[in-house]
Amino acid sequence: xxxxxxxxxxxxxxxxxxDRDELRFPQDSVVVLAGIPGAGKTTLLRRLFPVGGDHQGVxxxxxxxxxxxxxxxxxVVPYAAWRPLLxxxxxxxxxxxxxxxxxxxxxxxxxxxxxxxxxxxxKRSGLQVHLVLLDVPGxxxxxxxxxxxxxxxxGSMETHCRRWPELLEQAVVDPSQVVPGAVSAVVLSRxxxxxxxxxxxxxxx
Length: 205
Prior knowledge:
The protein is of the alpha/beta class and about 200 residues long. It contains seven helices and nine strands.
């Protein structure tokens, strides 16, 4: 079933239910919420799955939440000094928890080695991988970074922006080219993401 204005790719035999304000996935799913830094991934997760809220069994992984937990201890040290450790801890924690669904996983998706790890771990756990990609222009994403008070280094941002268009093309043709084993991909603009009211997981898919 297609949604007007949304770019959608679904593997044969996969049922993905959706309408203008809701995306619905099977219980045994890992949904990778992807986008370049500043695209609005954390904002969307915070709105739909607020910290401390009742997520009804959905595991929500966002590196920004882990960063907030570490800030009281490491905040006096420049973030650049402990950013690699934070990312390592985040992926170790998320991959270790990827034993049962449902799970929502925040990731930029522009690092091939991370995508391969996600696909490998999900396959070992017998989970489906679905992609929700926030397609936001680089200048808009950069504005989002300034708004949140944390700006990605120019060289790193250029790499994210350079890889993103090809990743999108692959996702709408064959999601498994992005994350091995992925069975669906939904591409959302900033406006469409702001209109999304629910991401739901149920047995019907």
